[in-house]
Amino acid sequence: MAADTLSAKSEKTTNRATDTDRHVGTRIRERRIMLGLSQQQMADMIGVTYQQAHKYERGINRISAGRLYEIAQVLNVPVSYFYEGLNDAGVQDMNPRQRMCLELARNFAQIHNERHQEALSQLARALANDEQ
What we know:
This protein is mostly helical. The chain has helices at residues 2-15, 19-34, 39-46, 50-58, 65-75, 96-109, 114-131.
């Protein structure tokens, strides 16, 4: 009977998301936002449902090696990108500055007028140079 309990406990552990799954999901989400893609757009590009893409990003469902490769292709990064920072004291929440940068990238990607994008880019460069 003890062996059955151990086996059942082992199965539950393997079905749970790990810190690694959550880290990879967070990296997917960050990159998707940087590119200005919605979850639905990314899901369509990798051939899964919106719900599945959402579960990948939350670290709820594990991602197979083949699927992670597809995601890397769609997001134009090497597979290793998703593991960067994994050994840095576990998964950490984004700080306010990181959130602001992601929001800025998302909003910039939603500007369709190229002149407005260029103007905003020049403004950012001017402000950055002014700080130095």
